[in-house]
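Supplementary Note 3. Input sequence used for the single-chain structure prediction.
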Amino acid sequence: MRVPVLDINGKPLMPTKPSRARRWLKEGKAKVVHNDLNLFCIQLLVESSGTKTQPIALGLDPGKKFTGVGVQSAKVTLFMAHLILPFPDITKKMSGRLILRRARRGRRINRTRPFNKRAHRQKRFDNRKQNKLPPSIRANKELELRVTKELVKLFPVTQIIYEYVKAKGKKGFSPVMVGQKVMLQWLEKIVPTNVQEGWQTSILRQQLGLAKDKKNKDKQTPETHAHDGVTLAASNFMKFEKFQGANTRGHRWEGFVKVTSAPFRVIARPNLFRRQLHFENPVKDVLGNRKRKGGTITPFGFRSGDLVKAEKAGKVYIGWIGGYTQTAKTKNVSVYDHNWHRLGQFSPSKVQLLQRSSRLCVTSARHWTTPFLRRPGNLAQATPLRSVELGDSRDCVE
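The predicted structure, written as discrete structure tokens, is reproduced below.
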């Protein structure tokens, strides 16, 4: 385990051991600082003795619904994350908006008049040929970019490795392929970025001995996507190179990397609804007022997306504000978990604000031990990886 360290000006330095971080805090040389990823981080209050850093790589394994993230140095794994992308929520909202818009247009048109005299709104511009990303894809990429920016603030990342999806021909067959070039342009503005294909990631992951769960992609464990992110980051230190000797030739792994246990986070975006005029079926009360729908402000001092602690029937819940109810008989707020499943409705007097909304829902698992080793005596028994020769159809350690 390593603790992120910032210098006196907020610039990231090399992470340190927890024991040293505790000593600095006890001696008054550092303070604990907050970050949106809920990682324990300290900032020095005195000038650092050195500012030299070692290479640190960040791996991104993008997907349609989930993305794996890993931060790796040559000697330790620093961070792992499982991103829950908003693709299904955004497509559902856009489909609903399409239906409502078509219904409004249909109600506005007087079909008893001749076609050329109807109230059809003419197009303002040719909107059929644009270079825009679809809203669902843009939301996915912006969440990945947001997490990348937060990690760059905590670790001195020197390289980003992005898994690039390819298909035969020039046709895109998956939402994962849409927006890859735009995403790479965004990442290049932050840190130098390289790409790697999926088959290369698979080979190195097997060589590192990291498990891969392909049966249940929804499972929020490192085995589903985070291990691929770690593998991509580790590829910055390990290469599969050709070699030729006097009597042998083939390929072998060159480089040095050590994969260890690391903090693991599950990160999602709060499923917020913008203020809308009414529900799909307009309903009015006796006074002619429409029922409220959407919005992010509550009359109780909370906002949608705020992290809170709520109590009911002697049980304490930690979650995020997602809405409220205010009638003559009932006043409560709804609290949701990171999957945006409602934990319950609570009285505002029994809800305590912990943190204002950062537009991220982050949960942590204390320590996930990376499952090393596919077979005894292989490379990654919590020991540094060395170059591996794959000549003559067998593995051997130099």
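The domain at 271-359 is CATH 2.30.30.60 (SH3 type barrels.). Residues 366-398 have pLDDT under 50 and may be disordered.
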